[in-house]
Amino acid sequence: MLEAFHTIKGALVSAPIVQPPDWNLPFEVMTDASDYAVGAVLGQRKEKKLHVIYYASRTLDEAQCKYATTEKELLAVVFAFEKFRSYLVGSKVIVHTDHAALKYLLTKKDAKPRLLRWILLLQEFDLEIKDKKGIDNGVADHLSRMKIDDDVPLDDSLPDEHVYAVEVIDYGEPLLADDGVRSTNYLAAEHEPTGFVGNKKKKFLRDIRRYFWDEPYLYKHCTDGVYRRCVADEEIPGILFHCHSSSYAGHFATYKTVSKALQAGYWWPTMFRDAHRFVSKCDVCQRQGNISKRNEMPQNFILEVEVFDVWGVDFMGPFPSSYGNLYILVAVDYVSKWVEALASPTNDAKVVMKMFKSVIFPRFGVPRVVISDGGSHFINRTFDNMLKRHGVKHKVATPYHPQTSGQVELSNREIKNILQKTAGTTGKDWAAKLDDALWAYRTAYKTPLGTTPFNLVYGKACHLPVE
């Protein structure tokens, strides 16, 4: 048993071994025919030694068995070239056969119609026929004399016609608008659009520089220097849902919805039009509408400009009880627009102290200025002592016009707007939705910043689930 194993092992690593082709060398085909079968061998000669690439044979049907010897020998050649076509097209081929008449048959003009058809079939190949005695053509001769008694048909999972076949796939709907399809075709297959001449062609070739193809997607180099994936039409509704209606989206208007899609790394030509249409059909947004902006006062500019140097704080509420919570304490950084919030059952100084000791100080450091209204939860000895101990200046907004602490009021309004649209019909689970509302706010595009609070603070775009 062990001896048989070593014998098989040695046979697998010693000549003759089937080897891959070398496309720089000519191919050699050995053929032979018997009364009932044809055989063929494909190989290449390296250092005067033949290396086999492929063995093939097949039995003849009843009609073919009645062919003359010359016809059978030519049939063996035709069978070999049909079987090995994917290797032989475009290459020099030397055919070895023991039937010398085949050399002259290829140039004969008055042959039988069947032979003429086969000769025409061989015209696409660069072949040369050489004589080879049957005793020297042993492998092909053996293949042509093999008998298979088992009539069970072979299940060929890779038919010959599928080898190196090129399939044209119809994707149905275009990847993008017409320009996107033209760009994809050009970048993927160097196929220039038909009918593009003169200035039209120059413009196309100039615009195509902004795109590149990375299988299986088309990307565009946008004006902000970021490469974004071009989106197919069927993907657009899902992306808009994630960027507008999901828990981390916030139901913002068109511009901020598009900004989230761009932040997620997507682009398509009709982004603003599609986003506007999607937002206008959002049932939640149409029912809630915009929070009123009446009685707003002009916002005052803050001179300190370092991130996390100036924080504004304010309470929101009371709201319907949610897990025992009635109020939200909001803190916003005036420079980055970064927002922190705590849900609480009360609106007293203890909650304010918790916000600064547990959130602001350990995460963002000690600010220079804190801005608040004149409520007792902010104006008290405990809070004042803590701010003085840390060297923080406390500024109080005008009592008759709390809108003068404009950034906090704006943040309150946006967070309240998000919660109204995500907290359900009863509005009693707003405390559970508060973290998602903060996520949506931090990743929303802010026009004064030209980016999102998250990007400004961390120096990178937030990775959203839609990506």
From TrEMBL:
The keyword Nucleotidyltransferase applies. GO terms for molecular function: endonuclease activity; hydrolase activity; nucleic acid binding; RNA-directed DNA polymerase activity. InterPro entries: DNA/RNA_pol_sf, Integrase_cat-core, Integrase_H2C2, Retrovirus_Pol_polyprotein, RNaseH-like_sf, RNaseH_sf, RT_RNaseH. The keyword Nucleotidyltransferase applies. PROSITE patterns: INTEGRASE. Transmembrane segments: none annotated. Gene3D superfamilies: 1.10.340.70, 3.10.20.370, Ribonuclease H-like superfamily/Ribonuclease H (3.30.420.10). Keywords: Endonuclease, Hydrolase, Nuclease, Nucleotidyltransferase, RNA-directed DNA polymerase, Transferase. CDD domains: RNase_HI_RT_Ty3. Residues 294-461 form the Integrase catalytic domain. GO terms for biological process: DNA integration. This is Integrase catalytic domain-containing protein. It comes from Microthlaspi erraticum.
